[in-house]
Design goal:
Elements lengths: L15 H10 L2 H10 L4 E2 H7 L5 H13 L3 E6 L5 E6 L1 H5 L1 H29 L1
Antiparallel strand pairs: 1-3, 2-3
Length: about 120
């Protein structure tokens, strides 16, 4: 990392590569899908049922991005109807500790953040 003088200048592209990755990885649906897949290999319908509030379209898009980025493996079984299963790759599993740390930080600071938001709204409103 010595050649980087600032994290946003990674690869000399002004941080575009890292921002593109973080856009997908830090997405709320991505983190929920990854956390849900930590349990086991799951079918699409099982994932959809276990993630409240996600639409089928958003789940499909999220899974495509995760597969494209190498975080999820998609296996189609030649059956009628076809059975499709999703599993975290080793890289996908490596996302869990930082994601859980970020979620823990958010949970720890909920009271302060909500108080700050309320104070802001009071000042602005």
């Amino acid at each position: 990392m010595d050649e980087y003088f600032h994290p946003c200048m990674i690869r000399g592209d002004g941080g575009r590569a890292i921002r593109a990755i973080l856009d997908h990885v830090c997405n709320k649906w991505t983190l929920l899908v990854v956390a849900t897949l930590d349990q086991d290999t799951l079918r699409f319908t099982d994932l959809h049922r276990q993630i409240p509030g996600i639409s089928q379209r958003m789940l499909t898009l999220t899974l495509r991005h995760l597969e494209r980025d190498g975080l999820v493996t998609r296996v189609v079984h030649a059956e009628v109807p076809p059975r499709v299963e999703y599993t975290l790759t080793a890289m996908g599993r490596s996302l869990l500790p930082p994601a859980l740390a970020l979620a823990g930080w958010a949970m720890q600071h909920v009271p302060q953040i909500e108080a700050s938001r309320a104070a802001y709204e009071h000042r602005s409103g």
